[in-house]
Design goal:
CATH superfamily of the largest domain: Nucleoside Triphosphate Pyrophosphohydrolase
CATH architecture of the largest domain: Alpha-Beta Complex
Strand content: 25-35%
Helix content: 10-25%
Shape: globular
Mean pLDDT: 95
Order of helices and strands: HEEEHEEEHHEEEEEHEHEEEHH
Largest sheet: 6 strands, mixed
Structural class: alpha+beta
Number of helices: 8
Distance between the termini: 18 Å
Radius of gyration: 22 Å
CATH topology of the largest domain: Nucleoside Triphosphate Pyrophosphohydrolase
CATH class of the largest domain: Alpha Beta
Length: about 300
């Protein structure tokens, strides 16, 4: 299954990145394509990514070295930050990446995920975490190297376990404290995977921490890059072995069991006691898979 922010068609050019001279020349090629961002908003032309050539890019005053995303066909493609927003090409506008992803083709959302995550990482990690000196981008943005202590720093991806816990014809949903409370939206429980922890262990720990429930079998469903700032959502179905909720009141506003009928209404946008997560979120697809019966029978399908 491909989710929004997946399906990236870019050849990331692992071998090409090893040649710093090639990277520098590639950015000056007549067929080089640049995807501008400002404040991590992406430039669109209509509902498509607005790839610019070097002449179109220059008036926008790009900042920092461009990040090499890879090759599409024979052309090198880059992501770049821009300072000026008053000289955008005709028909182009800067759009929040979540909003943009709901409008464009799936493969383009995968490019957005790669570009946004890498630009944000370089913005946040200019200085060496070992000695504090300013580091420099190499390999087209695949690494930052410290000229003082020679430490190598690589863009990180944070793994997140997100799980739909089921008990027969009902599933467990939660609402963390924060902005979602006002929307009425409930979603699958989720949490970062700790160091030295397997996916299954993370699922069981997070469910126990947030809902006070024990979980037995865990089955992987699918994964989704989530570039806010840079996570990999690892979606699972999990079988509850206890059902009495003992919620973490510091982190969660509410945790509840939702039966299949109520969940179906919420997913269809019909009147319901909760609002379901939208198709942009992997939680939506975990729920949809469970409702359709497209899961192991032990998980309520």
């Amino acid at each position: 299954m491909k989710h929004i922010f997946s399906g990236n068609p870019m050849d990331r050019g692992e071998a090409l990145r090893r040649d710093e001279a090639w990277i520098a020349k590639a950015a000056d090629r007549f067929d080089a394509c640049f995807l501008p961002f400002n404040r991590l908003n992406v430039l669109l032309r209509g509902r498509e990514l607005a790839w610019l050539n070097t002449a179109e890019l220059e008036p926008l005053e790009p900042t920092l070295p461009p990040v090499f995303l890879g090759m599409l066909g024979d052309s090198p493609h880059f992501a770049v930050n821009i300072d000026r927003t008053d000289e955008l090409p005709d028909g182009c506008q800067l759009v929040d990446c979540r909003t943009a992803a709901m409008q464009m083709a799936l493969d383009e959302t995968g490019i957005v995920a790669q570009a946004r995550a890498q630009l944000d990482w370089h913005r946040r990690h200019r200085f060496c975490s070992v000695c504090g000196e300013e580091s420099h981008m190499q390999r087209g943005g695949q690494v930052r190297i410290c000229p003082s202590c020679d430490a190598n720093h690589f863009p990180r991806t944070d793994p997140v376990a997100i799980m739909l816990v089921v008990d027969g014809d009902r599933c467990l949903l939660g609402q963390p404290k924060g902005p979602l409370v006002k929307t009425g939206m409930y979603s699958a429980l989720a949490g970062f995977i700790d160091q030295g922890e397997s996916i299954e262990e993370a699922v069981r720990r997070e469910v126990m921490e947030e809902a006070g429930l024990k979980v037995g079998d865990v089955r992987y469903h699918s994964s989704q890059p989530w570039p806010f700032p840079s996570s990999l959502m690892i979606g699972c179905h999990a079988q509850a072995t206890s059902t009495d909720i003992n919620m973490d009141t510091e982190e969660m506003h509410d945790v509840r069991w939702v039966d299949r009928e109520e969940m179906t209404r919420a997913m269809n946008g019909e009147p319901a006691s909760i609002k379901a997560p939208g198709p942009i979120a992997i939680a939506h697809h975990l729920i949809a898979s469970w409702l359709s019966g497209d899961v192991d029978p032990r998980f309520g399908g």
